[in-house]
Amino acid sequence: MSGRQALLLSSSNCHGYSMLEFAKEEICAFLNKNNVKELLFVPFAQNNFDDYTNKIKGVISHWGFSVTGLHTYSEPKKAVSSAKAIFIGGGNTFLLLDRLYTHNLVDLIKNRVLEGKLAYIGSSAGTNVATKSIHTTNDMPIIYPPSFEAIGLVPFNINPHYTDKNENETHKGETRDQRIGEYISMPHANAVLGLREGSILHVDGNSLILKGVAGAVLFQKGGKKTEYSVGQNISFLLEE
Question: Quick one: fold of 5-165+173-238?
Answer without folding.
Answer: Rossmann fold (3.40.50)
